[in-house]
Structure formats: C-alpha cells, structure tokens
Amino acid sequence: MITITSTAVGEVKKVKESRNLGDETFLRIAVLGGGCSGMQYALNFDTAFDAVNDTTYNYDGVKLATLKKYDPHFDGTEIDFVSNAVSSGFTIENPNFPRTGGCPGCCH
After folding, report:
1. pLDDT tens digits along 59-78
2. What does residue 49 show for φ and ψ, rounded to 5 degrees?
3. Domain 3-93, what architecture?
4. Residue 56 and residue 66: Cα distance in Å, rounded?
5. Which of these, 103, 17, 23, 34, lies nearest to 73 by C-alpha position?
C-alpha cells in the first residue's frame, strides 16, 4: 500500500486547482527504472484509468493510481511534500528499494 502525507495531499490539491484540472484527473506514480542511486519514479497527472491494469487509492479526495504490476514494489511507500530554503518538491520513500550511496566503483 502507498500512503500520501497530508502535506502532499494539500500540495496535490493546490496544483490541480492552479492548473484547472477536473475531478477525473488523478495522480499517477510509475517506476522508471533503477540505477546507482536507487529506483527512479515519476509522478504525473493522468485521466486514463484502466480498472483491469491499475490500482487506485484515495486520500482525502486525492486519487492516486499505479499499475497493478508495481504493487509489490510500492508496498509501504510514502509520498510527501518537502519545502525548505533550498528547494521544494515531492519525495518518495520506498522501504523496499532504499536509496543507496551508488554502485561500487561508480562515481568515486
């Protein structure tokens, strides 16, 4: 199961409103692949939900979907929104694929 913090839910709602996205628009999370720094993810807005291939979650009015084939990879994953003096953005913490310090011999 994927969870979304209340901070991230609020930010998704703000973005949807600022872009005038309708109720049929939901947030989609996908796996792009892995590499030296761990799994790479994508968060995008989408309107094409496929009940056969997608899993959906609802958090305080924010719909989130992912492909069912990713369910085992995302179990326990948390999406948050972090803002500080340097940057702001969504973070994805996945206990199944923690970020690593790089591949042995890579970038050292």
Report:
1. 999 999 999 998 888 899 99
2. -90, 135
3. Sandwich (2.60)
4. 7
5. 34
Quote the CA–CA distance of 15 and 2 in Å, as a whole number. 20
> Residue with structure tokens 């803002």?
83
Reported as a single tens digit per residue, the pLDDT across 22-55 is: 999 999 998 886 655 566 789 999 999 999 999 9
Burial 19-48 (b: 16+ CB within 10 A, else e): eeeeeeebbbbebeeeeeeebebeeeeeee
Q: How far apart are CA 22 and CA 9, in angstroms?
A: 16
Range 79-107 average pLDDT: 76
Taking the C-alpha atoms of residue 45 and residue 35, their distance in angstroms, rounded to an integer, is 24
Give residue for tokens 């979907």: 65
